[in-house]
Amino acid sequence: RIVSTAKKPWVGWPRLITLLVFFGFGILVGFLFSLYIRPTSLLSDFLCEYCEALKNDELRISLFFALWDCIKWPFLIVLLSPTILGLAGIPLLFAIRGFLLTFSICTFSRLLGGEGLALAAALFSVTTLLVLPAMFILGCDCLQASARHLPNFPQAGTKIFHVETYLVCAGILMVSATF
Q1: What per-residue confidence (pLDDT) applies to 23?
Q2: Fewer CB near the terminus (10 Å): N or C of the chain?
Q3: Which helix (DSSP H) or strand (DSSP E) does residue 174 occupy?
Q4: Cα separation, 111 vs 98, whole angstroms
Q5: In angstroms, rounded to a whole number, what is the distance separating the alpha carbons of residues 50 and 174?
Q6: Residue 29: is its pLDDT beyond 80?
Q7: Is the pTM of this model over 0.70?
């Protein structure tokens, strides 16, 4: 039996498009805010000292901190999913993530030039390439779970949480924490 998804809200592409629009809005705002950062000597000195500490291998990051850095956004998304607050909170989290990521990358590149872009790539590339897809997968399912609290949402026959999806996302997050 083929079940039509035409009458079911938040099934399929609308959830992903909603999250992409909010993430894109965060990227745009982060880029625009980074244009207003004035290159001060204090901020540039701090970033240069940080780069030197990275080069000399003086920074030690604990496994707990690395794991928390990878799971904090997906954790917040899953935390909002059983409530109606998730309908506004989950897209807002995507906008904040897009803002923070873009603002950091643009600020590094603006203050330090090519070295800042290389530093941003070193700091954000692995976790971003692995955590962002997991965030979008979780975000789509969790947004649908939050939509179940709407009065016109069909309750019967819709599978909201996919265990295999969460296991894949958990594996991705664990791998990204090791980098």
Answers
A1: 93
A2: N
A3: helix 163-178
A4: 20
A5: 26
A6: yes
A7: yes
The CA distance from 129 to 59, in Å, is 23
pLDDT on residue 144: 83
* CB contact set of 104 (below 8 Å; sequence gap of 6+): 120, 123, 124
What pLDDT is attached to residue 3? 47
**Lookup result for tokens 């700091």:** 123
CB-count burial class (<10 Å; 0-12, 13-18, 19+) for 61 = exposed
Q: DSSP string covering 65-134, please?
A: HHHHHHHHHHHHHHHHTTSTTHHHHHHHHHHHHHHHHHHHHHHHHHHHTHHHHHHHHHHHHHHHHHHHHH
pLDDT > 50? residue 150: yes
Mean pLDDT across the chain: 78
Three-state DSSP at 147 gives helix
* Percent of all residues in the chain with a pLDDT value above 70, rounded to a whole number: 76
Residues 49 and 43: their CA atoms lie apart, in Å, by 10
Measured CA to CA, the distance from residue 35 to residue 90 in angstroms comes to: 27
